[in-house]
Amino acid sequence: xxxxxxxKNEVGAAMIGSYNQSLGVFCVLFALALFSMKASxxxxxxxxxxxxxxxxxxxxxxxxxxxxxxxxxxxIELLGVTVVAGNTWVEEGTAYALRQxxxxxxxxxxxxxxxxxxxxxxxxxxxxxxxxxxxxxxxxDWQGAGGYARPESWRAVYxxxxxxxxxxxxxxxxxxxxxxxxxxxxxxxxxxxxxGPCGNIAEAVRRAPEIIxxxxxxxxxxxxxxxxxxxxxxAEFNCWFDPEAAKIAxxxxxxxxxxxxxxxxxxxKLSAKRYAETEKxxxxxxxxxxxxxxxRHEKFKADPDYVTYIWDTxxxxxxxxxxxxxxxxxxxxxxxxxxxxxxxxxLAFKGGAPEGAQTSRIVLSVDEERLWKMVFDSxxxx
Length: 382
Description:
By secondary structure, the protein is α/β, with parallel strands linked by helices. The chain has helices at 4-47, 62-72, 90-104, 124-135, 154-162, 175-185, 199-207, 237-241, 243-250, 262-265, 272-281, 285-293, 295-302, 313-320, 368-380; strands spanning 49-55, 76-83, 112-114, 190-194, 215-221, 257-260, 269-270, 308-309, 325-335, 346-348, 358-366. α2 (62-72) packs parallel to α14 (313-320), α3 packs across α5 (154-162) and α7 packs across α9.
């Protein structure tokens, strides 16, 4: 006669043992799947071009378009936006960057860090007006942040401009510290798109020179090598705004330096026809409002022959697809930081270069049709 209690206990133990075994197998398989997913995500992340955008941000114009091109590209992982004074104060650039990232749906994933709000030369901002009286100015009588009062805060700029409360805020970490941290976190993998004055870049390499060989490449918008400048006959705005910082950056031993100067920027014209195409391709109401608020909107309406440029946009296009470069030269370069008529002038040396000058790739021409296609493609994704 069978012992029913014994049989029940044996069956129960077997069932429990089988359940525990199945649970164990499930946990192992789940862990392996999770590890595989993480490894795959990590591999995909590493396959992308890691970029830090260092900018004196403006609303949907060259800086803004440059940022939106990077966020729209599947080949790019935008690690963050670091803001420096130049065309705008840092408070303004921060508000504009946040609003545009919000509109594009990237504000939660792309941190914005506030950086240096003045050139390295002490008292330079206060002297700019007098300086221009002494040294003269060029085609563009523009001083950027040196020509008007500093805003109270980035929140004040945001509220005043957009009549709304921001949904995101800049990170507490200073832009310079963010650059240093990210370059050390991804050694040899980070490209820096430097489309404003070089204050943040110069301070980062002065504070942590060990990051210089760790940066994959740095691509600048700045300088005028074989043509006149814009803010003075000698100098382009970004290098003129902070010549000492530009000199430090240009003379650093980066693995690769690419410079996008006025020489190429002023070949790519934003005409009334291109502006109309821009309007046509932007459907997002936030960006349509920005475009129409930009002073160039009125200029195009008033003068169909008006022409301007999209300077910083070319930097992002080159980072996304370097094959758009159709002409370039490689020469040692330097920046004149002597306080004189040619203050901020960039120089390329075909003969003997001064000690410390580093060889850079100077872009002279790009495929304009492909560039504009990249711009319009990014607009359609907004």
